[in-house]
Amino acid sequence: MPPRSTRPATPLDDDDYPAYTMGRAADMLGTTPAFLRALGEHRLITPLRSEGGHRRYSRYQLRIAARARELVDAGTALEAACRIIVLEDQLEEAQRINEQLRQRPADRSDKTDA
């Protein structure tokens, strides 16, 4: 079996490909373009720009925006929602690294023979 490529076969397979316009992204999320702009102002997501300067969002960014909307809809202030999402992401990354470190075999050079 050939090694699996880590690169998506097409841009449509790529979660980071900026496929959605601001209007389409807002429609998909059931929100307004102003909400998406606010997420950018709070630096939660930074959309890429088309050659014409229009914001373009990826599926990954839309998932983050959807999480922010859930928190805001539940009564969390937008700034706090953005901070919560950043902290959740940092926690997930720390847990992943911690798990990798636990799975590494112990370094035998640390042990001494008595």
Automatic annotation (TrEMBL):
Protein name stated in the entry: MerR family transcriptional regulator
A Pfam family cross-referenced in the UniProt record is MerR_1
Please give the InterPro entries that the UniProt record associates with this protein: DNA-bd_dom_put_sf, MerR-type_HTH_dom
> What sections of the sequence does the record tag as coiled-coil?
none
Origin species: Streptomyces thinghirensis
Q: Would you say which domain of life the source belongs to?
A: Bacteria
Matches recorded under Gene3D superfamilies: 1.10.1660.10
User: Which SMART domains does this UniProt record tie to the protein?
Assistant: HTH_MERR
Ranges for domain HTH merR-type come to 19-87
